[in-house]
Design goal:
204 residues, alpha/beta, Rossmann fold, seven-stranded mixed sheet, 7 strands, 33% helix, 16% strand, methyltransferase
């Protein structure tokens, strides 16, 4: 059965009271992720974050905590969920696109912060490879690419989860030019030469 990112899906995994703050979209957990990503991008850019591109944005949950930190940030989101775009697209600047569409889609100039959270491990390898170069080309600062592997304990949504080794993602993200920073964060190729040796892992 094809996975449906419909209203029931977002209610179950993002707003189910039984999950409380352990839900994917738990407000405190999300706020910490956003704060980490923004702080890391600003550290490397040496200025406030101005632009954010969210690929696989769902309902655009990152927008509110981003605006709390940076009220004037420009946010642009893309997702394959017709439900999410139909309901929230106009007011949250969300647009319909699959990850694989980014093989050709370049909707904006490189952004300060690129977000691709909880997406890659649900994609078929062909679609992943088609869209992956865009993550590097559209990131001018830091990318938050939250991805889980078969080495991780997965308690949440496992329907369609691809149990790939961590090496699979490390090699592919590095191949398109992204530089690992840890904690799901990757540095834009454009900033690689400006970091100190001990700011990066041994193999970066």
């Amino acid at each position: 059965m094809t996975k449906q990112y419909d209203a029931a899906y977002f209610q179950r995994w993002y707003r189910d009271p039984a999950l409380k703050d352990q839900a994917i979209g738990g407000t405190a957990r999300l706020a910490r992720k956003v704060a980490l990503a923004v702080a890391t991008a600003e550290y490397h850019l040496e200025r406030p974050v101005r632009t954010v591109l969210d690929i696989g944005c769902g309902e655009g949950a990152w927008l509110a905590p981003l605006r709390k930190l940076r009220p004037r940030v420009q946010y642009l989101g893309f997702d394959s969920s017709e439900y999410a775009i139909g309901r929230f697209g106009a007011r949250r600047n969300l647009h319909l696109a699959r990850f694989g569409d980014f093989q050709h889609l370049r909707p904006c100039a490189p952004v300060d912060l690129l977000v691709c959270s909880d997406v890659l491990h649900y994609l078929d390898t062909r679609e992943l490879d088609h869209g992956l170069p865009a993550l590097a080309e559209l990131c001018g600062g830091v990318a938050f690419v939250e991805t889980f592997t078969r080495e991780d304990g997965i308690d949440g949504d496992t329907h369609g989860f691809k149990r790939r080794p961590a090496r699979f993602y490390r090699e592919r993200l590095a191949a398109v030019g992204l530089v690992p920073l840890g904690s799901h964060l990757w540095l834009s190729p454009a900033l690689r030469d400006g970091v100190a040796a001990l700011e990066l892992p041994n193999n970066a």
